[in-house]
Design a protein that fits this description.
Layout: E1 24-29, E2 32-37, H1 38-41, H2 48-51, H3 60-66, E3 69-71, E4 76-79, H4 83-89, H5 91-95, H6 106-115, H7 125-152, H8 160-173, H9 179-201, E5 209-210, E6 216-217, H10 220-243, H11 247-252, H12 254-279, H13 282-294, H14 303-306, H15 308-319, H16 321-345, H17 357-368, H18 381-439, H19 446-450, H20 463-471, H21 489-493
Parallel strand pairs: 1-4
Antiparallel strand pairs: 1-2, 3-4, 5-6
InterPro entries: Ion_trans_dom (IPR005821), K_chnl_volt-dep_Kv (IPR003968), K_chnl_volt-dep_Kv5/Kv9 (IPR003971), KCNF1-like_BTB_POZ (IPR048010), SKP1/BTB/POZ_sf (IPR011333), T1-type_BTB (IPR003131), VG_K_chnl (IPR028325), Volt_channel_dom_sf (IPR027359)
GO molecular function, one term: voltage-gated potassium channel activity
Membrane topology: Multi-pass membrane protein
């Protein structure tokens, strides 16, 4: 580029600088040298690179406000930035949009775009989704860290009732907080299993007894065990409701609705048994009680509160509605087609089991799902061929959407583990930074800490979040000493 002297930048401070469209701008970003032209950069005048065209007229103060270093001999601007991210940002001037390459951290790339003064509206839509996903992950990590900090810290300004409320909520909602809380969580888990087993054992005729009218009812011992379990579930729900920080959100939560459905049938049945006979016939009361007792199966869903695997499975199914709908559509089309073909092909046989197309739906369902009870089966050759084809199509239709559902489950499960580990890592870094600041043993000297700019006024409550923001960096760079506050041109090239 030595022969391009006529089109290169003039000396700093000269008033006759030709900031024209044919001007050459030489930049060195992280050791990668690039020659750009004024007509290219002037397409987006609000960016940092476009400001380099007229920066020499303002002297060295203006130059160093835009770059890290400048070589007057080579007339070259030096930037201590990520060269890979710069290769993506420079695409804006050629193609009108920015595309983030694979392997670059979305948050770091956003910081690079902010440095080069490139608006996020120029970022491609597919890259915006990655940025939004990463931002949600960081917000989730910050939320988990905040919850842990809230648990560790105690506000002395709060009243006794508020502190007691927090302790009860922490005791019941966070088993990992203490050993007694873990014991209570295990006990609640065992009582859910016991109540479910009791509900099943109550239907065994050998374990039932006859009442005064000769009807079979549950054994009194099983009823007592179930009453004790329901009493525990009721006490647990009421304590969690009273200690909840947001009672409306608590009442409308899905898992808490499941808790209500698990204990409500017991009290409704108890009310109908003692008071319903006065308002309606005894037969109707018994039928209503029997229907309510069926709702006791909802208590098995309480296990999801104590099992992260069940919660992950629920989320995976929730995220896989499209794949599940596709599976149901495949099966519905196949059931309709093969049941109609089976009915038509079996009409020639005198002892056909296919009486109608709606009745053939049952045969098509158990065949395509590879169950095959054998209560309905084809007897003609064409009917057997149709059954074989429906079986193969059913296997393919079921297998195709299963892989995305499994991927969603694995992705969410791994993501939760990563977020949990990242939250603990952030806390460890915050504790390490706090101890380092207290002892004056950071990467630089004690004087470096004194030279750091103070926190803005009115943001005392954000000190932990500022430490969190510092600890998010992938690599830790020690503080520079007083003699090395700025990188030299050789260090930039390295």
């Amino acid at each position: 580029m030595d022969g391009a002297g006529e089109r290169s930048l003039p000396e700093p401070g000269s008033r006759g600088s030709r900031a024209g469209d044919d001007m050459e701008i030489v930049v060195n970003v992280g050791g990668v040298r690039r020659v750009l032209y004024g007509d290219l950069l002037s397409r987006y005048p609000e960016t940092r690179l476009a400001e380099l065209i007229d920066c020499l007229a303002g002297g060295y103060d203006t130059i160093f406000s835009l770059c890290d270093d400048y070589d007057p001999g080579k007339r070259e601007f030096y930037f201590d930035r990520d060269p890979d991210a710069f290769k993506c940002v420079i695409e804006l001037y050629y193609f009108g949009e920015v595309h983030m390459k694979k392997g670059i951290c979305p948050i770091c790339f956003k910081n690079e775009m902010d440095f080069w003064k490139v608006d996020l509206k120029f970022l491609d839509d597919c890259c915006k989704s990655h940025l939004s996903e990463k931002r949600e992950e960081l917000e989730e990590i910050a939320r988990r860290v905040q919850l842990i900090l809230d648990d560790l810290g105690a506000d002395t300004a709060e009243g006794r009732w508020r502190r007691c409320q927090k302790c009860v909520w922490k005791f019941l909602e966070k088993p990992e907080s203490s050993c007694p809380a873990r014991v209570v969580a295990v006990l609640s888990f065992l009582l859910i299993l016991i109540s479910s087993v009791v509900m099943c054992m109550g239907t065994i005729p050998e374990l039932q007894v006859l009442d005064a009218e000769g009807n079979r009812v549950e054994h009194p011992t099983l009823e007592n065990v179930e009453t004790a379990c329901i009493g525990w579930f009721t006490l647990e729900y009421l304590l969690r409701l009273l200690s909840s920080p947001n009672k409306l959100h608590f009442a409308l939560s899905f898992m808490n609705i499941v808790d209500v459905l698990a204990i409500l049938p017991f009290y409704v049945s108890l009310t109908l048994t003692h008071l319903g006979a006065r308002m309606m016939e005894l037969t109707n009361v018994q039928q209503a009680v029997q229907a309510l007792r069926i709702m006791r199966i909802a208590r098995i869903f309480k296990l999801a509160r104590h099992s992260s695997g069940l919660q992950t499975l629920t989320y995976a199914l929730k995220r896989s509605f499209k794949e599940l709908g596709l599976l149901l559509m495949y099966l519905a089309v196949g059931i309709f087609v093969f049941s109609a073909l089976g009915y038509t092909m079996e009409q020639s046989h005198p002892e056909t089991l296919f009486k109608s197309i709606p009745q053939s739906f049952w045969w098509a369902i158990i065949t395509m799902t590879t169950v095959g009870y054998g209560d309905i089966y084809p007897k003609t050759t064409l009917g057997k061929l149709n059954a074989a084809i429906s079986f193969l199509c059913g296997v393919i239709a079921i297998a195709l959407p299963i892989h995305p559902i499994i991927n969603n489950f694995v992705r969410y499960y791994n993501k939760q583990r990563v977020l949990e580990t990242a939250a603990k890592h952030e806390l460890e870094l915050m504790e390490l930074n706090s101890s380092s600041v207290g002892e004056g043993k950071t990467g630089g000297s004690r004087g470096d800490l004194d030279n750091l700019p103070p926190e803005p006024a009115g943001k005392e409550g954000l000190s932990w979040s500022s430490q969190l923001k510092i600890s998010r960096s992938d690599t830790f760079i020690p503080l520079l000493t007083e003699e090395k506050h700025h990188r030299t041109r050789l260090q930039s090239c390295k």
